[in-house]
C-alpha cells in the first residue's frame, strides 16, 4: 500500500464511526481528502476500558527531540503481515497489545517501475467507508514529558483483483463485522491466532477504483471501475 488516505468525513464514514460504538472522542476525526504518510490520522482504539478516537502520527516508529517528536528515518507507515510474528520486529508487541482501526473513505496506490511512478489510483468504498486494520504505540518524550501516539497500517500480499493497480501489496481491510472488530480492538485479547485468516488478501466489500492525475490534485483521468467483494468460502 502506498501512503495516502482519503479521510473525507462524509455521511458514510460518520455512520461507520457510529457503528464502532465509541465511548470517548479525544480528538475530532480528521476530515481531509488527501492524507499522506507521516501526517496525522484519526484512529479508533481501546484504552483504559474505553473505545476512543484519537489522532496519531501515521508512522509507527518516531524519534523524540528536545521539542517534540519526528518520524524516524526508518519507513514505518506500513507494517508487513509477515513481520507481525517476528519477535524483534517493530510491530510484534503492538500486534498483540495495541491494535487499532482507521476509518476512512478510501486509500491511494501508486505503481512504480524502476523507481518511477507508472500510474496513480484512488480506491474508495462503494458505500460507506473502509476499516484498514492497524497498529499503534504510545511514546513519552523524556525532554518535554509529551505523550504521542503513532500508528501504521498492516499490509498484505497483493490481491489478484488489484494487481493491475498495485502489484506488491494491499492494506488489510477488516470486514465490518461486530465480533471481528470487537476482538481486534480488545487489548486483553492476546490470542492472535484467530486473526490469521485476516492476514490473507481479501476484499470484504465493493470498491471503486479510479486512475487520477496526481495524489495532491486527484483529478480523475479514467472511468470508475468496480472491484467486487470476495465471496465467503
Automatic annotation (TrEMBL):
Protein EC: 3.4.-.-
Pfam families in the record: SRAP
Lineage: superkingdom: Bacteria
Keyword check for Hydrolase: yes
Database matches in InterPro entries: SRAP (IPR003738)
Residues passing through the membrane, by range: none
Phosphoprotein listed as a keyword: no
Sorted UniProt keywords: Hydrolase, Protease
Stored PANTHER family: ABASIC SITE PROCESSING PROTEIN HMCES (PTHR13604:SF0), DC12-RELATED (PTHR13604)
Family: Belongs to the SOS response-associated peptidase family.
Protein name in UniProt: Abasic site processing protein
Species for this entry: Colwellia maritima
